[in-house]
Every structure is written in structure tokens, then in C-alpha cells.
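Section 4.2 – Deliverable D4.2 (structural model, holo form)

The reporting period included a commitment to supply a predicted holo structure for the target in complex with adenosine-5'-triphosphate. Inputs used:
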Amino acid sequence: MTQQPVALRCRALVKHFAQQPVVRGVSLVVPAGDILVLVGPSGCGKTTTLRLIAGFERLDGGTIEIDGRIVAEDDHHLPPERRRVGMVFQDYALFPHLTVGQNVGFALGKNQPDRDRISQLLTFVGLPGQDQKMPYELSGGEQQRVSLARALSTRPAVLLLDEPFSNLDAALRAGMRSEVRALLKSSGTTAVFVTHDQEEALLLGDHVGVIRDGQLEQIGTPEDIFHRPQTRFVAEFLGQTRFIAGYVVGDGISSALGHLSSRTTLPVGSVVEIAVRPDDVTFVADEEGNGRVLSRRFTGISYLYQIGLPNEITVQSLQPHEMRMEEGMTVRVYFTADASPPVFYHGHSV
Ligand code: ATP
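Output (C-alpha cells):
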């Protein structure tokens, strides 16, 4: 198997603001042509990490390497325009007094704008022949396409995108996500996105990095992050997770929702937490059951039920339309046959 070259390598990045650590030892590698999405709650340091890579902020520690060249380390700090990065911002940041074509060609040099390249870029982002329009004549989604075309114009080694879809309405956002991913893939562009939206992270990324409090809590494929979270924090951040208690027994883990086979090395009797997602749980009407239907919500393709268990614990269960249970019904709740939910001991995966 041939190894992909590395487009971006960050080693132990550190950044303080007013003596407060905001980025605390972030290390990551993005192979050329791949998309990394950094996701995490508000204020965790995602944007600052992106701005360090772009060169808008100076490092307090660590090394940034882009396309095999160190662009920041100790006192060495290349400015953004010399890093071979392109940037797409949440608010598009188009020049309002320039035409679409002038915006796209801005970084290509003012004196000799390359018309072919501009029209090729506009066609690429789905806006052929729109170069004479002004930004205010375009919708939000179209403006973001112009911003993408502008960022790609200089063929950056890494494209950096900070919440690029958050100003778009929900329907447009969903379409733009898959379209932009397809565009980046078809042009082989290496990209780093920042978002606080877990669904967006899983949809867009070849790799997803979950940031917590300035540190990279876990990085992996979307499937890895979702199905094999290494910490309780990652499990809680993704996938509408609820937690229930479990107890280590001889051949696995016992819980209010049934027995889980598990080869844990923890001593019998240890108390663990089981991360329960809506597709791990099912239920049937049963007057002697262990739960009660608290609510039913129509989500379009299925119903999402909230089920109350003893001790004020609730879990969620996703069910097809054919199954209609009413609020207040007593039910027996249990793990689906193929559920293998992540289990945590003191916050770490077991
Ligand atoms: P959000 O999703 O809300 O944008 P984020 O994860 O992108 O959050 P950052 O913007 O990186 O978070 O900010 C991390 C922390 O650093 C925050 O507490 C923020 O207030 C602080 N911070 C960011 N930029 C500066 C700055 N220039 N000066 C001082 N503090 C800053």
C-alpha cells in the first residue's frame, strides 16, 4: 500500500490568551487529499487551532508543518500569505465593492487577472458565467461558493474552513455540505473544517478530531469516533447519548436494560457507565415492565421515544412508524440484539 504524503502536521500546539491556556498540546496529521473536521463545544479552542494553522495567531509552543515545510516553530512564524493555505470564513468575507470575478481573482494578482482560471473556478463551484455580479446579488449559499472559489484560486496545500455553513438555513446547509465535500474530493484538496455541529463533523470528515478544553480528546474516522469513543466526553458529545449504570459480573455487564457480553478485565462488582444511543434500545408493551413512555416525537423517518426508567433515568429509542406506543404506557425496555454500546469506567473506555 502506498502511503499518502502528509499535507499538514501539527505537533504539541500551545496557545495562551492572557496567561490562560486555550490550546493545550494539540498534535495531528492530515494526509494529502483528506478532510479533517475539528469539532467540540463552544470555547474549546477549535477556531484558535485553525487560526494558528492559518498564521493569524502566533504559537506559544509546538510546530506546524505544511506540505513538508515548517511554517511556525519557536520564533519562526510565516505570515498567512506565505503558508499555502486558503481560508473560508463563516461570514464569507467577500469584498462588497468588487464583482464576483474580482473577488475570486483577488489573490491571483490584480494587474493580470487570469480570466480562464476565474471562469473555471466559478464553473467548478456551480456559478458559471456569474463573474460580473456583485456579492449582494447572490444568496448566502452562492456567496459561500464564491468564497470557496476564491480560497481555491491559489491552489492551497491546505484549505481551512471555519464554520462555513453556519449562516445558511438548515435545508441549504445540508445540500452545501455534501456538495462542498464532493468538490473538495474531486479536486483532491486537503481541508480542515471547524464546526460545533456533530452531524456535520461525521458527514464531512475523513477524520474527526474532538476537542475538549484545548486538547484533542480523540481523533479517528467518523465511524471510530462514533462507535468506539475512548472517553465518556466523546460519547456524550456524539449521538444523543444517555448513560445508565452497569455492574461487572462474571461474563459481562449487567444493567437495567439487560446483560451485555463483555471481556472487561475490571473486577466483578465494578460500577461502570454504559453509553446508550437511541438505536441500541427497544421496548414492548408490558404492564410488569421496567419503563414508561414519557414522550413520542415524530422525526420524519421514525419516531423517537423518551422512556423513563427507575431512579429518574431516561433513555431514548428510535422506532419505525408501524410501532405506535402512547405516552404513559408501561413497557419493558431492553437492549436490541445487536447493541454493543461503549462502556466507561471513570470516564474512560473499558
Ligand atoms: P466557538 O465554537 O464558540 O467559536 P471555539 O472552540 O472556536 O468556540 P475559540 O474561538 O478558539 O473557541 O476560543 C477559545 C477560547 O479562547 C475562548 O475562551 C475565547 O474567549 C478565547 N479567545 C479566543 N480568541 C481570543 C483573543 N484574541 N483574545 C483573548 N481570548 C481569546
